[in-house]
Amino acid sequence: MTISMLQSGDELQSMHHITYKVIKLLGSGGQGEVYEVEAKGKRYALKWYHVHMASRSQRAIIDQLTENGKPDERFLWPVDIIEAQQTFGYIMDLRPAAYKSIVDLMKRRAEPSFKALCTAGFNLADCFQKLHSLGYSYCDISFGNTFLNPENGEILVCDNDNVIVYGMTTSSVQGTLGFMAPEIVMGEKGPSAETDLFSLAILLFYMFMLHHPLEGAKEANIRCFDAAAKQKIYGQSPLFIWDPIDKSNRPISGYQDNAIIYWNVYPKFLKELFATAFTEGLKNPRKRVVENQWKRAFVELRDSIVICPYCGAEIFYQESIAIGADNICWNCNKGIMPPPRLKIGNRLIVLDKNTVLYEHHIYNDLNLSERAAQISRHPSDPNKWGLMNLGKRDWVFTKQDGTKVSVAPGKNAPLISGAKIDFGSSEGEIRIF
Protein backbone atom coordinates (compact mmCIF):
# COMPACT_ATOMS: atom_id res chain seq x y z
CA MET A 1 0.00 0.00 0.00
CA THR A 2 1.35 3.43 -0.96
CA ILE A 3 1.76 5.79 1.99
CA SER A 4 0.95 9.42 1.30
CA MET A 5 3.54 12.10 2.07
CA LEU A 6 1.27 13.95 4.50
CA GLN A 7 -1.15 12.53 7.04
CA SER A 8 -4.55 13.70 8.27
CA GLY A 9 -4.05 16.03 11.20
CA ASP A 10 -0.60 17.26 10.15
CA GLU A 11 -0.14 21.00 10.62
CA LEU A 12 2.00 23.10 8.27
CA GLN A 13 2.91 26.78 8.44
CA SER A 14 3.04 28.82 5.26
CA MET A 15 5.22 31.69 4.07
CA HIS A 16 2.35 34.01 5.09
CA HIS A 17 2.52 32.58 8.64
CA ILE A 18 -0.81 30.80 8.29
CA THR A 19 -1.21 27.33 9.83
CA TYR A 20 -2.92 24.79 7.59
CA LYS A 21 -4.25 21.50 8.94
CA VAL A 22 -4.32 18.48 6.60
CA ILE A 23 -7.83 17.02 6.27
CA LYS A 24 -7.46 14.29 3.64
CA LEU A 25 -5.70 13.23 0.45
CA LEU A 26 -7.65 14.20 -2.69
CA GLY A 27 -5.45 12.64 -5.38
CA SER A 28 -1.95 12.11 -6.68
CA GLY A 29 -0.06 12.45 -9.94
CA GLY A 30 3.37 12.55 -11.47
CA GLN A 31 4.35 15.86 -9.84
CA GLY A 32 2.93 15.33 -6.39
CA GLU A 33 -0.14 14.88 -4.21
CA VAL A 34 -3.13 17.15 -3.60
CA TYR A 35 -4.70 17.45 -0.16
CA GLU A 36 -7.70 19.16 1.31
CA VAL A 37 -6.52 21.45 4.12
CA GLU A 38 -8.13 23.91 6.52
CA ALA A 39 -7.07 27.28 7.89
CA LYS A 40 -9.11 29.85 9.84
CA GLY A 41 -12.32 27.92 9.22
CA LYS A 42 -11.94 27.77 5.44
CA ARG A 43 -11.03 24.78 3.26
CA TYR A 44 -8.30 24.93 0.60
CA ALA A 45 -6.34 22.59 -1.62
CA LEU A 46 -2.62 21.97 -1.12
CA LYS A 47 -0.42 20.61 -3.90
CA TRP A 48 2.61 18.94 -2.30
CA TYR A 49 5.50 18.09 -4.63
CA HIS A 50 7.38 14.82 -4.70
CA VAL A 51 10.96 15.50 -3.60
CA HIS A 52 12.37 14.80 -7.06
CA MET A 53 9.93 17.32 -8.59
CA ALA A 54 10.62 20.12 -6.11
CA SER A 55 13.22 21.81 -8.31
CA ARG A 56 14.51 25.35 -8.06
CA SER A 57 12.93 26.22 -11.41
CA GLN A 58 9.52 24.94 -10.24
CA ARG A 59 9.85 26.95 -7.05
CA ALA A 60 10.76 30.06 -9.07
CA ILE A 61 7.59 29.63 -11.11
CA ILE A 62 5.41 29.32 -7.99
CA ASP A 63 7.09 32.34 -6.38
CA GLN A 64 6.39 34.46 -9.44
CA LEU A 65 2.79 33.27 -9.80
CA THR A 66 1.93 34.00 -6.17
CA GLU A 67 3.59 37.42 -6.40
CA ASN A 68 1.82 38.41 -9.64
CA GLY A 69 -1.62 37.14 -8.62
CA LYS A 70 -4.29 35.34 -10.61
CA PRO A 71 -5.38 36.63 -14.05
CA ASP A 72 -9.02 35.91 -13.23
CA GLU A 73 -11.11 34.43 -10.40
CA ARG A 74 -11.72 31.31 -12.48
CA PHE A 75 -8.09 30.19 -12.06
CA LEU A 76 -7.33 28.03 -9.01
CA TRP A 77 -4.11 29.98 -8.65
CA PRO A 78 -1.24 29.55 -6.16
CA VAL A 79 -1.90 31.97 -3.28
CA ASP A 80 0.50 30.78 -0.57
CA ILE A 81 3.59 28.56 -0.25
CA ILE A 82 4.55 25.95 2.35
CA GLU A 83 8.14 24.78 2.69
CA ALA A 84 9.59 21.56 4.11
CA GLN A 85 13.18 20.41 4.44
CA GLN A 86 13.35 18.73 1.04
CA THR A 87 10.20 19.82 -0.76
CA PHE A 88 7.42 22.43 -0.83
CA GLY A 89 3.83 22.93 -1.86
CA TYR A 90 1.36 25.66 -2.62
CA ILE A 91 -2.13 26.59 -1.49
CA MET A 92 -5.00 27.22 -3.91
CA ASP A 93 -8.77 27.47 -3.69
CA LEU A 94 -10.65 24.20 -3.42
CA ARG A 95 -12.65 23.13 -6.46
CA PRO A 96 -16.41 22.93 -5.67
CA ALA A 97 -18.00 19.50 -6.09
CA ALA A 98 -20.42 20.78 -8.77
CA TYR A 99 -17.56 21.17 -11.26
CA LYS A 100 -16.83 18.14 -13.45
CA SER A 101 -13.82 17.32 -15.59
CA ILE A 102 -13.83 17.00 -19.37
CA VAL A 103 -13.19 13.29 -18.78
CA ASP A 104 -16.59 13.17 -17.02
CA LEU A 105 -18.07 14.79 -20.13
CA MET A 106 -16.42 12.24 -22.43
CA LYS A 107 -17.65 9.33 -20.30
CA ARG A 108 -21.16 10.81 -20.06
CA ARG A 109 -20.93 11.21 -16.30
CA ALA A 110 -21.74 14.88 -16.94
CA GLU A 111 -24.51 15.84 -19.39
CA PRO A 112 -24.54 19.62 -19.93
CA SER A 113 -27.14 21.12 -22.21
CA PHE A 114 -25.96 22.62 -25.49
CA LYS A 115 -26.59 26.04 -23.96
CA ALA A 116 -24.32 25.25 -21.00
CA LEU A 117 -21.73 23.78 -23.36
CA CYS A 118 -21.71 26.94 -25.50
CA THR A 119 -21.31 29.01 -22.33
CA ALA A 120 -18.43 26.77 -21.23
CA GLY A 121 -16.72 27.18 -24.61
CA PHE A 122 -17.01 30.96 -24.34
CA ASN A 123 -15.74 30.99 -20.76
CA LEU A 124 -12.83 28.69 -21.54
CA ALA A 125 -11.65 30.90 -24.41
CA ASP A 126 -12.13 33.96 -22.20
CA CYS A 127 -10.01 32.45 -19.41
CA PHE A 128 -7.06 31.75 -21.66
CA GLN A 129 -7.39 35.11 -23.36
CA LYS A 130 -6.96 36.77 -19.97
CA LEU A 131 -3.99 34.52 -19.21
CA HIS A 132 -2.27 35.24 -22.53
CA SER A 133 -2.92 38.98 -22.27
CA LEU A 134 -0.59 39.04 -19.26
CA GLY A 135 2.22 37.36 -21.19
CA TYR A 136 1.66 33.91 -19.71
CA SER A 137 1.74 30.54 -21.45
CA TYR A 138 -0.21 27.73 -19.80
CA CYS A 139 1.93 24.94 -21.36
CA ASP A 140 -0.42 22.01 -20.70
CA ILE A 141 -4.04 22.61 -21.72
CA SER A 142 -5.65 19.16 -21.61
CA PHE A 143 -8.39 17.01 -20.05
CA GLY A 144 -7.05 17.12 -16.52
CA ASN A 145 -6.87 20.84 -15.81
CA THR A 146 -10.23 22.23 -16.91
CA PHE A 147 -13.47 21.77 -15.02
CA LEU A 148 -16.99 22.88 -15.93
CA ASN A 149 -20.26 23.20 -14.09
CA PRO A 150 -22.67 21.25 -16.34
CA GLU A 151 -25.63 23.23 -15.02
CA ASN A 152 -24.50 26.65 -16.23
CA GLY A 153 -21.23 26.30 -18.18
CA GLU A 154 -19.04 28.06 -15.62
CA ILE A 155 -15.35 27.13 -15.87
CA LEU A 156 -12.46 26.60 -13.45
CA VAL A 157 -8.83 26.12 -14.50
CA CYS A 158 -6.49 24.25 -12.15
CA ASP A 159 -2.87 22.95 -12.26
CA ASN A 160 -1.61 26.48 -12.82
CA ASP A 161 1.83 25.68 -11.41
CA ASN A 162 3.16 25.03 -14.91
CA VAL A 163 2.18 28.49 -16.17
CA ILE A 164 5.20 30.47 -17.33
CA VAL A 165 5.88 34.06 -18.25
CA TYR A 166 6.78 33.50 -21.88
CA GLY A 167 10.42 34.32 -22.56
CA MET A 168 11.26 34.84 -18.87
CA THR A 169 10.65 31.51 -17.13
CA THR A 170 10.78 27.93 -18.33
CA SER A 171 8.80 24.85 -17.43
CA SER A 172 9.80 21.21 -17.55
CA VAL A 173 6.27 20.44 -18.79
CA GLN A 174 5.91 20.35 -22.58
CA GLY A 175 2.24 19.36 -22.60
CA THR A 176 0.11 16.24 -22.89
CA LEU A 177 0.51 14.12 -26.01
CA GLY A 178 -2.65 14.42 -28.07
CA PHE A 179 -3.03 18.08 -27.07
CA MET A 180 0.45 19.33 -27.92
CA ALA A 181 0.97 21.37 -31.08
CA PRO A 182 2.81 19.45 -33.85
CA GLU A 183 5.91 21.63 -33.48
CA ILE A 184 6.23 20.57 -29.83
CA VAL A 185 5.67 16.89 -30.65
CA MET A 186 8.47 17.09 -33.21
CA GLY A 187 10.80 18.86 -30.78
CA GLU A 188 11.00 22.01 -32.91
CA LYS A 189 9.62 24.49 -30.35
CA GLY A 190 8.62 24.76 -26.72
CA PRO A 191 5.32 25.89 -25.20
CA SER A 192 4.05 29.38 -26.02
CA ALA A 193 0.77 31.25 -26.39
CA GLU A 194 0.62 29.98 -30.00
CA THR A 195 0.93 26.35 -28.92
CA ASP A 196 -1.68 27.01 -26.22
CA LEU A 197 -4.09 28.07 -28.99
CA PHE A 198 -3.66 24.70 -30.69
CA SER A 199 -4.22 22.83 -27.41
CA LEU A 200 -7.30 24.97 -26.72
CA ALA A 201 -8.75 24.05 -30.13
CA ILE A 202 -8.19 20.35 -29.37
CA LEU A 203 -9.94 20.65 -26.01
CA LEU A 204 -12.89 22.55 -27.54
CA PHE A 205 -13.25 19.94 -30.27
CA TYR A 206 -13.35 17.22 -27.60
CA MET A 207 -16.00 19.14 -25.66
CA PHE A 208 -18.29 19.63 -28.64
CA MET A 209 -17.60 16.48 -30.68
CA LEU A 210 -16.52 14.01 -27.94
CA HIS A 211 -13.67 12.92 -30.19
CA HIS A 212 -10.11 13.86 -31.14
CA PRO A 213 -9.86 15.97 -34.34
CA LEU A 214 -6.89 14.01 -35.75
CA GLU A 215 -8.03 10.45 -34.97
CA GLY A 216 -9.81 9.08 -38.01
CA ALA A 217 -9.11 6.28 -40.47
CA LYS A 218 -5.35 6.64 -40.07
CA GLU A 219 -5.60 5.98 -36.33
CA ALA A 220 -8.14 3.18 -36.86
CA ASN A 221 -5.77 1.36 -39.19
CA ILE A 222 -2.89 1.35 -36.69
CA ARG A 223 -2.72 -1.98 -34.88
CA CYS A 224 -0.58 -0.71 -32.02
CA PHE A 225 -1.13 2.91 -31.04
CA ASP A 226 2.29 3.22 -29.40
CA ALA A 227 4.57 6.25 -28.96
CA ALA A 228 5.85 6.07 -32.55
CA ALA A 229 2.32 5.89 -33.94
CA LYS A 230 1.19 8.82 -31.78
CA GLN A 231 4.13 10.91 -32.93
CA LYS A 232 3.07 10.28 -36.53
CA ILE A 233 -0.61 11.10 -35.93
CA TYR A 234 -0.05 14.14 -33.73
CA GLY A 235 3.26 15.49 -35.03
CA GLN A 236 4.82 14.07 -38.16
CA SER A 237 1.81 13.91 -40.48
CA PRO A 238 -1.33 15.14 -38.69
CA LEU A 239 -4.52 15.38 -40.77
CA PHE A 240 -7.87 16.78 -39.67
CA ILE A 241 -10.60 14.13 -39.83
CA TRP A 242 -12.89 16.59 -41.64
CA ASP A 243 -10.23 18.18 -43.86
CA PRO A 244 -12.24 19.72 -46.74
CA ILE A 245 -9.69 18.60 -49.36
CA ASP A 246 -7.96 15.45 -48.12
CA LYS A 247 -10.63 12.90 -47.15
CA SER A 248 -8.26 10.04 -46.36
CA ASN A 249 -8.61 10.45 -42.58
CA ARG A 250 -12.40 10.47 -42.30
CA PRO A 251 -13.80 8.87 -39.09
CA ILE A 252 -14.86 5.22 -39.38
CA SER A 253 -18.54 4.44 -38.85
CA GLY A 254 -19.08 1.93 -36.07
CA TYR A 255 -15.76 2.83 -34.43
CA GLN A 256 -15.55 6.62 -34.33
CA ASP A 257 -19.27 7.42 -34.32
CA ASN A 258 -19.17 10.45 -32.01
CA ALA A 259 -17.12 12.35 -34.56
CA ILE A 260 -19.73 11.65 -37.26
CA ILE A 261 -22.87 12.21 -35.19
CA TYR A 262 -21.87 15.48 -33.53
CA TRP A 263 -20.25 16.96 -36.64
CA ASN A 264 -23.66 16.79 -38.31
CA VAL A 265 -25.42 18.46 -35.37
CA TYR A 266 -23.62 21.81 -35.53
CA PRO A 267 -24.09 24.67 -38.03
CA LYS A 268 -21.70 25.43 -40.85
CA PHE A 269 -19.93 28.40 -39.24
CA LEU A 270 -18.68 26.36 -36.27
CA LYS A 271 -17.47 23.53 -38.49
CA GLU A 272 -15.62 26.03 -40.68
CA LEU A 273 -13.88 27.48 -37.62
CA PHE A 274 -12.73 24.03 -36.50
CA ALA A 275 -11.57 23.35 -40.06
CA THR A 276 -9.45 26.51 -39.95
CA ALA A 277 -7.98 25.48 -36.59
CA PHE A 278 -6.91 22.07 -37.90
CA THR A 279 -5.88 22.89 -41.46
CA GLU A 280 -4.22 26.32 -41.66
CA GLY A 281 -3.65 26.35 -37.91
CA LEU A 282 -2.19 22.87 -38.01
CA LYS A 283 0.64 23.97 -40.29
CA ASN A 284 1.05 27.66 -39.46
CA PRO A 285 1.02 28.73 -35.78
CA ARG A 286 0.29 32.34 -36.77
CA LYS A 287 -2.97 31.32 -38.45
CA ARG A 288 -4.44 29.56 -35.45
CA VAL A 289 -7.91 30.51 -34.26
CA VAL A 290 -7.60 33.10 -31.49
CA GLU A 291 -9.74 33.40 -28.39
CA ASN A 292 -12.04 36.18 -29.65
CA GLN A 293 -12.94 34.09 -32.69
CA TRP A 294 -14.00 31.22 -30.44
CA LYS A 295 -15.90 33.57 -28.13
CA ARG A 296 -17.92 35.10 -30.96
CA ALA A 297 -18.65 31.66 -32.41
CA PHE A 298 -19.95 30.29 -29.11
CA VAL A 299 -22.14 33.35 -28.49
CA GLU A 300 -23.61 32.96 -31.98
CA LEU A 301 -24.09 29.24 -31.37
CA ARG A 302 -25.83 29.82 -28.04
CA ASP A 303 -28.05 32.52 -29.55
CA SER A 304 -29.25 30.08 -32.23
CA ILE A 305 -30.60 27.39 -29.88
CA VAL A 306 -34.27 26.51 -30.23
CA ILE A 307 -36.17 23.69 -28.55
CA CYS A 308 -37.77 21.14 -30.87
CA PRO A 309 -41.54 21.20 -30.17
CA TYR A 310 -41.82 17.49 -30.99
CA CYS A 311 -39.06 15.85 -28.92
CA GLY A 312 -37.65 18.62 -26.74
CA ALA A 313 -34.11 18.43 -28.15
CA GLU A 314 -31.97 21.55 -28.49
CA ILE A 315 -31.24 22.34 -32.12
CA PHE A 316 -29.31 25.16 -33.76
CA TYR A 317 -31.56 27.33 -35.92
CA GLN A 318 -30.01 28.49 -39.18
CA GLU A 319 -31.51 31.43 -41.06
CA SER A 320 -29.43 30.67 -44.14
CA ILE A 321 -31.39 27.54 -45.03
CA ALA A 322 -33.28 28.00 -48.31
CA ILE A 323 -36.54 29.96 -48.15
CA GLY A 324 -39.46 27.61 -47.57
CA ALA A 325 -37.24 24.87 -46.17
CA ASP A 326 -37.41 23.82 -42.54
CA ASN A 327 -34.61 23.36 -40.06
CA ILE A 328 -34.52 19.62 -39.31
CA CYS A 329 -34.26 18.35 -35.76
CA TRP A 330 -31.17 16.13 -35.44
CA ASN A 331 -32.95 13.98 -32.85
CA CYS A 332 -36.42 13.26 -34.28
CA ASN A 333 -35.78 14.30 -37.89
CA LYS A 334 -38.86 16.54 -38.02
CA GLY A 335 -38.98 19.99 -39.60
CA ILE A 336 -38.94 22.97 -37.23
CA MET A 337 -40.83 26.15 -38.01
CA PRO A 338 -38.82 29.40 -37.68
CA PRO A 339 -38.89 30.63 -34.05
CA PRO A 340 -39.36 34.28 -33.04
CA ARG A 341 -35.99 35.98 -33.38
CA LEU A 342 -34.23 39.33 -33.32
CA LYS A 343 -31.84 40.38 -36.08
CA ILE A 344 -29.15 42.88 -35.04
CA GLY A 345 -26.73 43.60 -37.88
CA ASN A 346 -25.54 40.22 -39.10
CA ARG A 347 -26.31 38.56 -35.76
CA LEU A 348 -29.44 36.53 -35.04
CA ILE A 349 -30.86 35.86 -31.58
CA VAL A 350 -33.58 33.23 -31.14
CA LEU A 351 -36.25 34.53 -28.74
CA ASP A 352 -37.88 32.24 -26.20
CA LYS A 353 -39.23 32.63 -22.67
CA ASN A 354 -35.72 32.48 -21.17
CA THR A 355 -33.89 34.78 -23.60
CA VAL A 356 -31.61 37.42 -22.11
CA LEU A 357 -29.79 40.04 -24.18
CA TYR A 358 -26.44 41.26 -22.89
CA GLU A 359 -24.40 44.35 -23.63
CA HIS A 360 -22.64 42.26 -26.27
CA HIS A 361 -25.80 41.90 -28.34
CA ILE A 362 -26.25 45.66 -28.53
CA TYR A 363 -22.64 46.84 -28.65
CA ASN A 364 -20.97 43.72 -30.11
CA ASP A 365 -18.29 43.95 -27.42
CA LEU A 366 -18.34 40.38 -26.01
CA ASN A 367 -19.61 41.66 -22.64
CA LEU A 368 -21.82 38.86 -21.34
CA SER A 369 -21.86 40.04 -17.73
CA GLU A 370 -24.18 43.06 -18.07
CA ARG A 371 -27.81 42.38 -18.96
CA ALA A 372 -29.42 44.71 -21.48
CA ALA A 373 -32.86 43.15 -22.02
CA GLN A 374 -34.93 40.07 -21.34
CA ILE A 375 -38.10 38.46 -22.62
CA SER A 376 -41.13 39.12 -20.42
CA ARG A 377 -44.76 38.05 -20.47
CA HIS A 378 -47.64 40.55 -20.47
CA PRO A 379 -49.08 40.72 -16.91
CA SER A 380 -52.72 40.38 -18.00
CA ASP A 381 -52.39 38.42 -21.29
CA PRO A 382 -50.08 35.37 -21.08
CA ASN A 383 -50.14 35.02 -24.86
CA LYS A 384 -48.40 38.35 -25.36
CA TRP A 385 -44.66 38.69 -24.97
CA GLY A 386 -42.32 41.64 -24.98
CA LEU A 387 -38.67 42.60 -24.67
CA MET A 388 -38.00 44.44 -21.40
CA ASN A 389 -35.44 47.26 -21.41
CA LEU A 390 -32.89 46.55 -18.63
CA GLY A 391 -30.51 49.29 -19.72
CA LYS A 392 -30.12 52.91 -18.67
CA ARG A 393 -31.34 54.67 -21.82
CA ASP A 394 -34.60 54.78 -23.74
CA TRP A 395 -35.12 52.66 -26.86
CA VAL A 396 -37.08 53.79 -29.91
CA PHE A 397 -39.63 51.20 -31.03
CA THR A 398 -40.83 51.57 -34.63
CA LYS A 399 -43.94 49.74 -35.81
CA GLN A 400 -44.37 48.54 -39.40
CA ASP A 401 -46.49 51.61 -40.20
CA GLY A 402 -43.64 53.90 -39.13
CA THR A 403 -45.12 54.89 -35.78
CA LYS A 404 -42.40 55.46 -33.18
CA VAL A 405 -42.73 54.86 -29.44
CA SER A 406 -40.17 55.43 -26.68
CA VAL A 407 -39.41 52.42 -24.45
CA ALA A 408 -38.00 53.55 -21.11
CA PRO A 409 -35.87 51.34 -18.83
CA GLY A 410 -38.10 48.80 -17.12
CA LYS A 411 -40.70 48.99 -19.90
CA ASN A 412 -41.43 46.49 -22.69
CA ALA A 413 -41.27 46.58 -26.47
CA PRO A 414 -43.94 44.21 -27.85
CA LEU A 415 -42.82 41.35 -30.08
CA ILE A 416 -44.42 42.36 -33.39
CA SER A 417 -43.06 40.92 -36.61
CA GLY A 418 -41.32 43.51 -38.74
CA ALA A 419 -41.04 46.05 -35.92
CA LYS A 420 -37.66 47.60 -35.22
CA ILE A 421 -35.92 48.63 -32.02
CA ASP A 422 -33.28 51.35 -31.99
CA PHE A 423 -31.07 50.51 -28.98
CA GLY A 424 -29.01 53.67 -29.40
CA SER A 425 -25.88 52.15 -30.92
CA SER A 426 -27.51 49.38 -32.96
CA GLU A 427 -30.90 48.50 -34.42
CA GLY A 428 -32.75 45.22 -34.21
CA GLU A 429 -35.60 43.83 -36.28
CA ILE A 430 -38.14 41.43 -34.83
CA ARG A 431 -38.94 38.45 -37.06
CA ILE A 432 -41.91 36.19 -36.38
CA PHE A 433 -42.78 34.00 -39.36
Question: What are the key terms here?
Answer:
433 residues; alpha+beta; Phosphorylase Kinase, domain 1; Transferase(Phosphotransferase), domain 1; Tumour Suppressor Smad4; six-stranded antiparallel β-sheet; 24% strand
Please tell me about this protein's structure.
Helix 3 (114-133) runs antiparallel to helix 5 (193-209) and helix 3 packs antiparallel against helix 11. The chain folds into 3 domains: 11-93, Phosphorylase Kinase, domain 1, CATH 3.30.200.20; 100-297, Orthogonal Bundle (Transferase(Phosphotransferase), domain 1), CATH 1.10.510.10; 340-433, Tumour Suppressor Smad4 (Sandwich), CATH 2.60.200. The mean pLDDT is 93. The chain has helices spanning 56-68, 102-106, 114-133, 182-185, 193-209, 217-220, 227-236, 257-263, 268-277, 280-283, 291-303, 359-363; strands at 11-13, 19-28, 32-39, 42-49, 80-83, 88-93, 100-101, 136-137, 146-148, 155-157, 164-165, 305-307, 314-316, 327-328, 335-336, 341-344, 347-350, 356-358, 371-377, 385-389, 395-398, 404-407, 412-414, 420-422, 427-431. Strand 1 (11-13) and strand 2 (19-28) form a beta hairpin. The chain is an alpha+beta fold and 433 residues long. The longest helix is centred in the N-terminal third of the chain and has 20 residues, at 114-133. It has a 6-stranded antiparallel β-sheet with strand order 1-2-3-4-6-5, with helices on one face. A 6-stranded antiparallel β-sheet has the order 17-16-25-24-21-22, with no helix packed on it.
